[in-house]
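Final paragraph of the annual report: two paired records, presented back to back.
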Amino acid sequence: MKSYIWILLALAAPTFSNEAFQFVDTFTDISDPSTYGVGIRKLYNILCETQDHGPVYGKLDEDGDAYYSFDEKVYECGAFTVVEGEPIENTGSVPDECLEHKKTQKTEVDFYPVIVKSRHGLIPGKANTPELGYFAWKGTQLARKNFKWFC
């Protein structure tokens, strides 16, 4: 019986490797490398121009709906520009390429565009430190440790 359990564990071990947790794009569109998404829905990184909160990074979906998160709430974004960039590994500091993307919100905190890996898929959002990336999801702001800079 013991050997049977060890065989099962040996067969299951590869599924517990780090490979299962690597950053994998859930949406790939070769013609447009700036798209990420949930399932097959395309999402774009955007910079929202808001009167209440200043410039805030957020997301735009393929239907034209744009959102950003601020102080744990989600807001619709009326005026925005699509952010151009490439995903850059998060190695514990803001990459030099991202410094020109720095935007200061009305809280006087600097933020940068990111792609956050969540259980919902790859979601465009923002980060002000290498520790957490923030994104809007179904009316609330969520944060995750696993993200890439987008600059």
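The closing record of the year follows.
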Amino acid sequence: MKVAGGIGVVGSAGCAAATDGGGTGPSQTKGATDPSGDYDIGGRRLVGADGYGTIAEAWADADDGDTVYVHSSYDAAEAGESFPIELDCREKQVTLCGGHPSASVIDAGETDETVLEVVGAGSGDYQNNPLVKDLTIVGGGIGLRLRAAPFASFENLTFYRTAGHAVLVEGHPDSGTFGTNWYNVQAWNCGGDGIRTDRSAAPHGTTLWGCRFTANRGAGVRFRGAACKMVGGTSQLNYDYGVETRGGDATLVSGAYVEGNARGNDFPVEVYAKRADGLTVENSYFHGINPRGAEHDYDRVQRAVNVHDSEKLTVRDCVARRYGDGFVATFGCVDADVYAASHHLEETELFARDPTRNGNARARSHGVILPTDLTAVDGACEYDRGYHVGDDGVEGHAIWRNGGWKVSETVSL
């Protein structure tokens, strides 16, 4: 089998296809109709040895349906690649990919320019979705800046030591960037956030699948928009919050590993939410240690989950270890359900603050309002449940029925 730059394609007759030639231009191939020649490799624009010198050159020559393939032999500095590398998906539908993230590397060095600038077709063409995968991006300013790209996908990307955010999703005059999917995207030691979605992008429905954000100078994940999700993955040792969400409904953090974040904050908190109605944090592991030290004066992260001014939030089925102040704290929240019996806690109190105070209303566990004086509390719905502890000495389970609480007094055993 003849192979150029690590690519071999089998043609219909069972023969191997490959590219010939070299230089900074595209490889030359003979047509598949010539039995003495090689088969065309099917629209792969190779960047590296025996191919294009720069990604920009390959992108410029690519046609709809092509793949710009970054080989391990590609060297951005040696090739004279200019940054940012602009992938304008309004002009053509082309995939940018490498063979393996550990080998296909775009090293932007000390430049403060964005490395990849990706612009989608916006709301005008929902089937034109940018696709970038299987690459490592090193250095530069922002690693990947994404705009006007609804339903775009990014897979197996590693960002290392960018000066700014690893990923920035920003607004665009033509469209928002919603419904994006990020699979196994990692950010290590970057100068800003691991991934930052700006409110101007209307980034609803952002989903992180098994992503990892470690030791970044900003937050691991900074969500804006509704129905954003972190499913699996890790956020640890970041200098700001592990996960932050503000002003977005129905945020989900599920099955995540969260440890030792907020190393640069005066008061360290792992997950911070504000105006996050419908927030759910579930089935996740939290560890409040500081294995590499921190800039604050605390021996441990103080809280795992800190929520302000939010309604109908749920925290359940988690493991929490070694938090200085407690696992959960809520302030000005309504119907915060902490599912108290569902958590496994080690060296950690469940509540960092009394959940029936701090401006909270109807604080709950497993849907039942925690013990409080229900005299001035309205039920949320017919047959709402709570536990009443009144100043008049009446105590017992209560059910909201026909506009009032029906209390069954407790019998001591």
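The chain has a mean pLDDT of 90. This concludes the annual technical report; the extension proposal builds directly on these records.
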